[in-house]
Design brief:
Elements: E1 14-16, E2 26-30, H1 31-40, E3 48-52, E4 58-66, E5 70-80, E6 88-92, H2 97-110, E7 114-115, E8 118-119, H3 130-143, E9 151-152, E10 156-157, H4 158-164, E11 170-174, E12 180-181, H5 182-188, E13 193-197, H6 205-213, E14 217-221, H7 229-244
Helix pairs in contact: 2-3, 2-7, 5-7
Length: 247
């Protein structure tokens, strides 16, 4: 006899929802997520959907009703508890919208716990659309099967960031003028940690001096080439995850 197909299938669509989930619960999905399920994924009664609530974990659900404006699903079983995310903050200077979108997306995929944007003197932007940013990290978490959304704070000026930086957390800052090799620095100081990345034009002299004067600051180098802000963020997080994270 043919083998019984696995349920839920690996191809089942994934969504984050705001309500806390429990077994046997009826959930109504509306708005854009309902449009995605019904019009894009074309789910129908009996199909599987995987929901995450950023609290209890990941749940396999069965579609009860698929309408044009809403989709009703019933939670069947919990597949995974909410994951333990490595205690790494990414603290990137704001970039142009499309480039910062990339930072948000890739930082989520790579597994950071929090994204804390900063504003420096050479930033080309000083605002962040919070709703858009939340949508980007949520969609990235859905795509890469995270069960925990990264925290996302409002942008703050560099001097405020340094003043309020918590004790006990290493502050690695990517300095194009040089520092310790990342492999050595990350191996010596694990979590909790934060990585501070500058804007396209880099930190100015006064900012660099203020960062280096911070008692928890640890200058690092990302190699002999000057990297764009989004490339530096991705490279630094990748190396930290390889040395101290969940890779």
């Amino acid at each position: 006899m043919p083998a019984t197909p696995a349920w839920p299938p690996r191809s089942a669509p994934r969504l984050f929802v705001e309500s806390e989930l429990a077994e046997g619960q009826l959930i109504t999905i509306d708005g854009q997520p309902a449009h995605y399920l019904s019009r894009v994924m074309r789910v129908s009664e009996g199909n599987a959907v995987i929901l995450c609530d950023d609290k209890t974990g990941e749940w396999a659900c069965r579609v009860v009703e698929a309408g044009k404006r809403h989709v009703n699903v019933e939670t069947v079983e919990r597949l995974r508890e909410r994951e333990q995310v490595p205690d790494l903050w990414l603290c990137p200077a704001l970039l142009k919208k499309d480039r910062f979108d990339t930072v948000l997306e890739k930082a989520t995929e790579l597994g950071v716990r929090e994204i804390r944007p900063v504003i420096t003197r050479r930033c080309v932007a000083d605002k962040l659309n919070a709703d858009r940013a939340h949508m980007i990290v949520t969609e990235a978490a859905e795509q890469c099967a995270r069960t925990a959304l990264p925290g996302l704070t409002a942008p703050e000026k560099l001097d405020t960031f340094l003043r309020d930086f918590p004790a006990g957390r290493a502050l690695f800052f990517a300095d194009e003028l040089g520092g310790s090799p990342t492999a050595k620095a990350f191996a010596a100081h694990g979590a909790p940690a934060a990585i501070l990345i500058g804007p396209e034009g880099g930190f100015d002299d006064a900012e660099r001096e203020a960062i280096r004067a911070h008692p928890q600051a640890k200058p690092i180098t990302l190699g002999p080439r000057i990297l764009r802000g989004e490339t530096a963020a991705i490279a630094a997080v990748s190396q930290w995850m390889g040395a101290s994270g969940d890779w």
